[in-house]
């Protein structure tokens, strides 16, 4: 029976308190691990772009000590940083994303690059929305409304590089193309 250590991440304290994002990740991991054994769960409340992850470090150490596989619900829950993903790929730890278990090193690098680009776009648009709200002298509630609209716009704009990535990824094989079609 294969042993797993799970790593769950949400970006904000509010998401951590509500537990909704964590529950969805737990469910995806639980479905994947049915035939195995989950040794421990590690939870981090941290931005996807940050590289200093104490809980991830503990999870990796646990995997090293027990020979377990690190399992995450989705690749972007691990990190939205190519550097973090590359560091993990270079380590001696086996890991799997429950939503795309057939991913290989190439597909993981490509998906990490897309996730990193999306994080940068969202960050830039958030800064622009805050600056615009401040220039208008908007009240905090108005600023939050603008930010929500900015986030929705960022998500829509993020589809553009994803479409370009799909064209490149078609050469990487049908499993990546199918994954991007269903998850992207």
Shape: globular
Strand percent estimate: 5-15%
Q: Please, how many helices?
A: 8
Structural class: alpha/beta
Description of the molecule:
The protein has 184 residues and is an alpha/beta fold. The protein has two domains: 3-97, 3-Layer(aba) Sandwich (Rossmann fold); 105-183, no CATH class. The chain has eight helices and four strands; from the N terminus they run E-H-H-E-H-E-H-H-E-H-H-H. Strands 2-1-3-4 form a four-stranded parallel sheet, with helices on both faces. Helix 5 runs antiparallel to helix 6 (105-136) and helix 6 runs antiparallel to helix 7. The longest helix is centred in the middle third of the chain and has 32 residues, at 105-136. It is globular.
Salient structural properties:
alpha/beta; Rossmann fold; globular; 184 residues; 8 helices; 2 domains; four-stranded parallel sheet
Describe the secondary-structure layout:
Layout: E1 3-10, H1 13-18, H2 20-32, E2 37-45, H3 54-66, E3 69-72, H4 75-78, H5 82-90, E4 95-97, H6 105-136, H7 140-169, H8 174-183
Parallel strand pairs: 1-2, 1-3, 3-4
Helix pairs in contact: 5-6, 6-7
Gist?
This protein is of the alpha/beta class.
